[in-house]
Amino acid sequence: MNKDIWRKIATAIAGTALIAFGHVPVAAQSDGATPQSALELTINDGFEGKDAFHFDWPEIRVGTGQYEAGPTGATVIHFPKRAHVAMDARGGGPGTINSDYIALGYPAAELDAIVLAGGTFYGLETATAVNTALIDDRKRSGRWDNIGVVMGSIIYDMGGRRLNEIYPDKRLAQAALRAAKPGIFPRGAYGAGRSAIAGGMFGCNTNSGQGAAFRQIGDIKIAAFTVVNALGVITSRDGKVLGCYKNPGWPEELTPQHLLGASPASMDGDWNGTDMAAAEKRNTTISVIVTNRAMNPAELKRLAVQVHTSMARAIQPFATEYDGDVLYAVSTGEIESGPGTGLVTAEIGTIAGEVMWDAILSAVPEQSRHLTPQNEPKLTNDEIRTAIGAYRFGTDHSLRVWHDGGQIYAQSRGPHPVFAIAADTPTQLLSVGKGLFTVPGRYPFAIQFSKDQAVINPGRWAQIGKRTGG
Amino acid sequence: MNKDIWRKIATAIAGTALIAFGHVPVAAQSDGATPQSALELTINDGFEGKDAFHFDWPEIRVGTGQYEAGPTGATVIHFPKRAHVAMDARGGGPGTINSDYIALGYPAAELDAIVLAGGTFYGLETATAVNTALIDDRKRSGRWDNIGVVMGSIIYDMGGRRLNEIYPDKRLAQAALRAAKPGIFPRGAYGAGRSAIAGGMFGCNTNSGQGAAFRQIGDIKIAAFTVVNALGVITSRDGKVLGCYKNPGWPEELTPQHLLGASPASMDGDWNGTDMAAAEKRNTTISVIVTNRAMNPAELKRLAVQVHTSMARAIQPFATEYDGDVLYAVSTGEIESGPGTGLVTAEIGTIAGEVMWDAILSAVPEQSRHLTPQNEPKLTNDEIRTAIGAYRFGTDHSLRVWHDGGQIYAQSRGPHPVFAIAADTPTQLLSVGKGLFTVPGRYPFAIQFSKDQAVINPGRWAQIGKRTGG
Amino acid sequence: MNKDIWRKIATAIAGTALIAFGHVPVAAQSDGATPQSALELTINDGFEGKDAFHFDWPEIRVGTGQYEAGPTGATVIHFPKRAHVAMDARGGGPGTINSDYIALGYPAAELDAIVLAGGTFYGLETATAVNTALIDDRKRSGRWDNIGVVMGSIIYDMGGRRLNEIYPDKRLAQAALRAAKPGIFPRGAYGAGRSAIAGGMFGCNTNSGQGAAFRQIGDIKIAAFTVVNALGVITSRDGKVLGCYKNPGWPEELTPQHLLGASPASMDGDWNGTDMAAAEKRNTTISVIVTNRAMNPAELKRLAVQVHTSMARAIQPFATEYDGDVLYAVSTGEIESGPGTGLVTAEIGTIAGEVMWDAILSAVPEQSRHLTPQNEPKLTNDEIRTAIGAYRFGTDHSLRVWHDGGQIYAQSRGPHPVFAIAADTPTQLLSVGKGLFTVPGRYPFAIQFSKDQAVINPGRWAQIGKRTGG
Amino acid sequence: MNKDIWRKIATAIAGTALIAFGHVPVAAQSDGATPQSALELTINDGFEGKDAFHFDWPEIRVGTGQYEAGPTGATVIHFPKRAHVAMDARGGGPGTINSDYIALGYPAAELDAIVLAGGTFYGLETATAVNTALIDDRKRSGRWDNIGVVMGSIIYDMGGRRLNEIYPDKRLAQAALRAAKPGIFPRGAYGAGRSAIAGGMFGCNTNSGQGAAFRQIGDIKIAAFTVVNALGVITSRDGKVLGCYKNPGWPEELTPQHLLGASPASMDGDWNGTDMAAAEKRNTTISVIVTNRAMNPAELKRLAVQVHTSMARAIQPFATEYDGDVLYAVSTGEIESGPGTGLVTAEIGTIAGEVMWDAILSAVPEQSRHLTPQNEPKLTNDEIRTAIGAYRFGTDHSLRVWHDGGQIYAQSRGPHPVFAIAADTPTQLLSVGKGLFTVPGRYPFAIQFSKDQAVINPGRWAQIGKRTGG
Known about the structure:
The structure is a homotetramer of 470-residue chains. The first copy, chain A, is an alpha+beta fold and 470 residues long. Chain A has 9 helices and 26 strands.
């Protein structure tokens, strides 16, 4: 996103952050007053553009959707002919459903869908909702040999990182399922990856998202899907960190070894605080690897373990106590297994690890940019009048803005900071021009005021606060 | 339920089976045309009577509710101050949620609620819904140290045993949570146990339900809750089978040893068929044992394993491939543990096994009775005219009724039988009088016709079919 | 102990259980001075008599042996054509080997043998020794497709219950493997069950052992082997406790419900002390269920879980924190599985639970008897001279015996009691006649002195102390 | 090892490969005729030199030893004051002992020792032997609160990679335990790593070994020990493959991405054959990470998972079906945990992952070198006469050598090749001079004949065949 586009979007805002992606511009409403049932729903249907990843595999249908007001969303991976599945939960805070049943290792294909979602444990409602949609739509029934089985996992995308309690829910998930299509997957800040971040271990806090990749070797197909919400930093194949809001003095071409070699000094130490930093350290990467090669339960489990382990190269560190990492290994069983039919499981797993690495790299969206404050700005009376007041974001956060000596200041009224605006001391808001203000610091921060609301970080990850007082 | 009451109910039915339990008479609507969102909701609020079990423990709040039209329901056990939990899944088809997280053994108390439900895997929607109600009601939030954690398990109560696809859902579970109260638990065919059965291994197919028991030893409290939907037979402490529709020739005072000693002959062999018998063999007993003694994760796991194992005395056989048995061991942590503070874990577990046995025995509701057909009944033209026609039950079952030589006959139009009415051959309906018909056989069966519908087994477990043709 | 002494002891005992097993009378040497490598080895080869259980199944070879000086032993169950296996560990202190490998669920038959042993964790040497015997004997090799796989588990039979540190070891296990034969199993206090006890939860402390049972239904064979070293009481099918040294006032026809109904008062409360009572509370029941029906890994796991759970009827309580219970489910795969080939897994599991119950009941050997002291005995000078002195048992226990006023007294010199002889106060030894003394109490106790040693409980579970001083 | 040293060793050989490491030159005897009990034992006691790694931590004692005739060995890590432990088994073929007990998560420190060994499942005898040594030496006893607990894992180092069935056994392990010392660890081809290899996935088949590393941050100590017997290639921090016998055409500076990017073509495809290639694909990396920071069972498990996962960077691919990877996380508990006492578990885990990477890199010994055959060599009659004959290696391999036209040829007499010498076709042996012959190919190969024997690959990994015929 170049500066002009940024400015254009910033200019365009009139009380609402317009988000242009796919063909569905939506109004972000994260004011906490709107109940879940009244939230505007965005389903990435007919989605195209550079973030649209295409792959050729009719047995896999993908549906994704978001509540832009969160923003948060869900990603439904539906196997209409059912599939075999094994799971590997490795992180310290996994959210899962029906994993005990699947772990029993029955030889039948029983999986209908895997649902990935934001919203921490609340987001698991999406997984159960996809299953009830299957019976509501009479695709599955109550007969013992036709019962729907849906698994699902969630990422932590709440706390200080967005200022509301919106979670992906039944309505969103069922809409995503019903809109699911084969062969297309939105990469970046969509679906379950809508508010993902990465690199909190070192305070990088880069925006992340969901990724996908596909490879075919002869008859064998391998697809990887992942939602990268990782405590560790995303790492390219040539050993570079992909996206990081750096600390001063860090190298231009940052590598994981720069960070790891300087540990513990390079680590961001605030683990138990109540500010954003502590929240950024609650993470999860949830992933799905699919092959069309038939696999028995033991093979599928090995595939899950090997591919999940391989991800430690692309995300460093990986599988920590503050991640809730889960990986699903799925076989659609279209290609027979056995001697003479091609690659052994260890070979498929090795290649699948590379496909997963591709998927991880594809997850990172364009990052928010730092804004440059004007030199010696003179604020107009109108600018000041528009800004001052009190604003509420969701349930837990609110802001007071006032002026003093021709400059405006803000302070969080709750116990927690509101991004760059501290709770215990005034923070000066510096004008960028055209009604936009910033606070310099490690992370980009913008705020814009209007009659009814304040919009923080207008654009992709806007947070809207409702004016509650003059 | 004596014959008079039975007749009264049978007489009373005019298109609807009135069910008098607690103070909430509801209309059963299992016609398959009603969407979940339009189903009438029954919450057992203000529930009293012989089925109401009282116990003194403010830290445990119980809410239960049903869709009588299923019938099926959910039971919410809410720990408002949170609790520690361990899980033991043992059966061959468990439905679970968040068990991987809980298995990590963190020392903090994190459990908010356990939800037990009917509806097989679809019923898991109740567990996720209870968690989203917690954030919707602002009892929990998105801050990483205040996230709601809800677990839940389900029983299989669909297939041929009720003729519709109704499942306990988000609306039902949230209503039950919000109506939860301490100290009271409805025992029998309520909540998650609404359509439970037991004894399918030997074809007993007795109605079962949910049970509860409580014991206090000094300061130590132990409560047991269970939904007994077991393949095995429920067994009293003096070794008698509790409830069984017997095969001809079986002893009056039936014991598990009669049945087990005569195996495999005594076993009901139809495991893969499509009729009710096959469906009755998909089961699950889901249980919760709670103590106020503080326990570390290892102790809780031991308590779970010991109590779950002990249930093999009260349910024979137990933990088979066709059960999905799950037990939750919970500690509210009100009483300190450690040497000198009373009973060791093995002792608490031993006593808890006895409390659980009590809970199991309390689960069994009054059984349906066999009806006696009239000798040489003469059907009136009106009776015949009212009966003949086609009826649809839910999505999968429908019935045709016709007359021939002054008698009426019925046949299932789908591939599956409708209880005693076969799919491939006509079954004669014998008049009991007053518009009620029966089919003699191992299991009680009644059917009553009116202008709009046919009611099978009017009373507690009534199934209503909508007339679809003359 | 030479043959004469053996005969003498046998003759002398009046009121004590005579021990006649196999054709191998052995000298008990539990003086602690003998290294493991010098212990006399007893292999139950050519074993016959009432304890010899015969069954027809060539694919299962059983070898058992003991160090009578412990006494403790090992039981090797060898599958020469290999078998499939699943394991269910349920108790709070299991000892296992290679369970992680087997849990992966590969479809190949890989198990060579299961070794059950006494000696707590030290006894696991028997399991690894059986595997090294397989390569030493060139029955298995180092080629990746011909590697031996042996599993094994152990019981706790040390602490205060025998006064030495002897454990079943490599030499014993390899000898038992090499002597293994099909179709015969010694039931009672042999092999791994040599020093088993049962009922410590209630202080019963009855001698137990190892059991076996077999049943054939059509082509399907089921064998059960078990070493019953249980905290709970062994229970007959008609609900009676099998063997228990009772507390005064307990009913003649004792049932588990007598004990459980009176809990916690009926429970023996000394869990952390250093005397025998605390040691008797460390237990384990280890079991093997075998079928010839082919089973996939999921079926085998279900069989293991169901049968293990069913044992809670025969042992009450079962699977406590102080048990280390493990069950192996094995399939030799001689009979095909699948529809139409007979019983489903749940049916086999149910019948197998009954066979296992038979095996448990068969494990209990004839109990030691209480001796009746003489009224007003006059000890001869020779009797007194022979008795007085100091005696050492194993490493941890020693005894001082002295005379006072024509009577003899004993006291343990270490911190722990020596069975009925306390550590902190003199205990009078009462003459039974013929050089045998007793101490009245809950448990039978006998002691006999000679020039070189003191023999406690001469007979089946004799403990020999070496004279260390005049 | 430079060329001169290599030549010197080659020259020095007169029927026996002398191996100079530490101060213990031993004679390799891998002729298969020697029973385990007669094998010469090498304990690395007083070991010094470049392979000796020193670290300051008295609570960890390390003992290592080998049967050079294998060569194979064991590494004992003894915690004399006991430690807490968690295990993470991830590969497809783990060998483990007592993992079920440890997984129960009791809060007490119970681990006495971890034993790592060669010899595939047979090598587990070393782990049980260390525990019986503890009771034999009266360091542990049979009292329930003083029972020794030893865990252990093994690597696959048999099959075609060494031509005998020697395994590390009870005698070796007990000697290693008794020689254990704090602060020193032999890195490279010693102990359990004596016959480790790496890189079989791509046919690299480089010699590997065991490694160690240590780091102290303030009061917190972290030590890593690992036996790298990996299917994947060992990777340096700057992304280079460490040691690989390359295929023609592979880049000089080989990276994992060269190999993975060219997969599946780069993969060595012979998975089910009977030759060395198939055997080289059975692998295992077994590792131990130790910290002195007190950790509860949940923290230890997280540490195990995170560090194990991080190893996927240093070994690519890692945790495949053909690895049996196991990692033990141990806490000696010397430093208190809790807020304010330094690093959180995720930070310790991240740093520990780096320490483990160091340990892995330190494991690789100097590689064998290719020998250059002479141009147009003229063999003397004496050289020919010495060479021709039949030789037996262990149980499974034998060789026939003959001359034809002034040249000598060899052929394996069994079904399997003997390294570079095929089984189905003659292979010409080319003279290097001084009685040494070679066969050109991907892997270095040398053979030298004397009156009694043939020595293959004289030097560190020599294999000796006994002459069985003229």
